[in-house]
Predict the 3D structure of the following.
Amino acid sequence: QVQLVESGGGLVQPGGSLRLSCVASGSIGSINAMGWYRQVPGKQRELVAHMSDVGITNYADSVKGRFTISRDNAKNTVSLQMNSLKPEDTAVYYCNLKVMRSTLYEYWGQGTQVTVSS
């Protein structure tokens, strides 16, 4: 059983910063990728940032230059440093883990609310 636990969401003013963290536990294997997605009501969940187990990153165009993803493989954690936040960054942010075993398995955290508002 794989579990993802997120922390770090909250309310911040435009231009401010937040840091999200996610800890994975269970049988996550060695070949995996971790990342963050976000979702607002009425819209599809979208990729924010993603990092492979060898450090290859992928960012949504809307967050490039403002958000930074990092991983600690020894601790099975992934973090998202969010700077220069905008109201349009307001969403529920979900931690995501993809594990390659005989096939690809995907797991989600429970989500953490990020609200950017003055």
About this structure: The chain has a mean pLDDT of 94. The two ends are 40 Å apart (CA to CA). The CA atoms of residues 37 and 48 lie 5 Å apart.
